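Worked example

This section walks through a single chain of length 421. The input is the sequence exactly as stored; nothing has been trimmed or padded.
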Amino acid sequence: MDEERTEKVWRNLGTSRIPKLPEPKFPNADAIVREGLLSTKRSDEAVDVLLVNPPTPDGSYWIRSQHRVGRRTRENMVWPQVSLAQMAALLHPAYKVGIIDANADRIGWPEFTKLLQKYQPRYYVTQLTAPTLENDMYGCFLAKARGAKTIVLGTHVTPIPVETMRPYPTLDFCLVGEPDITLRDLIDHLEGKIDQRPPEILRIFEKDQAYQPAVKENGEVDMHGIKGVAWRDGDEIVVNRPRPFVDLDDLPMPMHELLPLKKYRMPLIKGPFTFIVTSRGCPAGCTFCIKHVSYQFGLRLRSPQLLMEEMWALKRLGINNIHMYADLFTVHRDQVVELCNMMINEKIDIKWTCNSRVDYVDEEMLNLMAKAGNRLISWGIESANEQILKHARKGAYREKVEQALTWAKKAGIMNWGYFII
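Given that input, the structure is written out below as tokens.
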């Protein structure tokens, strides 16, 4: 009986007529995902702006800075990210800021991704360098995927902003030239806070007599009016007019406390160290130097008084070794002499290093520098071949090298030479 029922009921569905193929109508969850991304509750650790020195390409120590070409360190130096601390100081307290120095903290991409989840930045700011470009762009990709606006700076984007942004759609903005004030101006406009600037920030913008807030009559931001920015206008990449150079004495003290100060190391220096920026720019015309990209051939000095204030602040943070960070520390004799005398008179007891050209020193100044705690000078010697020096437009030759290094050694200062090979 059961067999008869099976024979009557059984039907091979493969014999059915094939239905007409419908028009495709795939599910679209974009709006739901986007809403979820934007409505994710921000934690107490979330920041407005995250300033980043990203993980390195190969896990080795690398050097990155706002006006340097990225390279793997030859000296096993862990390079302080004072430029990020400077930008943080310009944004704080109007914005909650954080800094990640993945190079110093030995952070790889998996851990870095977790930190992005933790800090949930609304703006992701990082340095790009040519040798680390694709590596650095991965950080922008991760941040953009989590809803952040991405902002980049450095010697790579300044001369080629369009061709940096064109192949990388995760880039929202490039800061062309000196980034400090441009970053504050851009975020103030995007956040609608240009009318909430404190007096010390207002003074910086007022130094540019042609400065005007980039706001249309209807209250919308006029992106064309924000100096020093490259940005996307639909499919077009727009490069705005450049921003004038900033007066260094107008800048607030860098927020060194946000940096992993104990991780920074330099050859021949025992214990942690960091940078103090004493000037920007150099009048020399060496053809190989990258500093002309960001700072051109002008020179701006910081006052010795402000440098001393910063040194004492670093002392309170436990830092007793400092590198006087400049394109050419000894570029202005009066500044160096005044600073050294203040260090001696205030008995600050800091050991410090610097760089110099051999034709920007004299014996009296070197003796004073040694008395003020100068332990080592990095000299840009470049070559002993006069033809190479002439071709590089170095302007300093062998006899001057011998004399300057002899004076320094006699004063008790160690000599460190850089050469072009």
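What to look for: The chain has a mean pLDDT of 91.
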